[in-house]
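Subject: for your reference before the review

Hello V.,

The reviewers asked for a structural picture of the protein, and I figured it would be easier to keep everything in one thread rather than splitting it across files. Below is the amino acid sequence we used in the manuscript, unchanged from the supplementary table.
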Amino acid sequence: MRQSAKRMALRKIQRPPLSPLRYALSGFSDTVMKVLGIDTSTPCGSVGLVSDSEVISEYLLNTPVTHSERILSAIHFVVKEAGCAMESLDGLAISLGPGSFTGLRIGVSTVKGLAFALGKPVVGVPTLDGLAAQVSPTPYLICPILDARKKEVYTAFYRYNQENVLVRLSEYQAARPEVLTKQVKEKTIFVGNGAGVYADILRTAASPFALFPPTPLHLLHGSMVAKLGLDLLLKKDVLDPATFSPIYVRPSEAEIKWQGQQVTLENTPD
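And here is what came back from the structure prediction:
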């Protein structure tokens, strides 16, 4: 009887372990998950690697170099310097936009390729959500703004609730800064590269409500994309790598031109 019980105990101990992601989702809390976060939605590209307890490594470069020239080397650098094999990652997180159309397509296509090659789950983090999350819990309204060119910004409004959970209060939108400021009726923290481009307009039109955080927070960090992505993985809120697409908010130049051509053709007499 004692030998039988001993064999049962040994069988339990020697049972093959679950994969890190399945182990975490099965209810255990002592497994360290690793997620790689990638942002190419703005001119400043960033890649970050996080575990469920800390930031492990990060790459951030705010220069005119195109994302296609640096994204793979940045990923390789972050993972290699952290001593972490790509195969050991539990998932990939990508910033979905809104933002640069070209940058978003580069980031999305890169992550899709990695997901298929590695067999890893993918989660998507809206860029504006990531920027807002970089602001610590505050009673003030939070308004991330990204330069959308054409004298517009991509934006939305957020606020921390009583449980210090960040809640989005509006739809993602493209708007002129002058129109955006008319919606500001209380102290509001503006964060994102659009806060620098349109700082004078915001300070003048939204005075005395406009507040600005330190400069580093205006850049979306890959580590924040990874952190929010880890939360999504635990909720099993994953994307289909074959079908997911960026958040564009407004049509691209090519789509606008194509629509214009269609209208012209429709109005052309037979």
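For the response letter, the relevant points are probably these. Residues 101-118 form the longest helix (18 residues). Residues 1-30, 258-265 have pLDDT under 50 and may be disordered.

Happy to draft the paragraph if you're swamped.

O.
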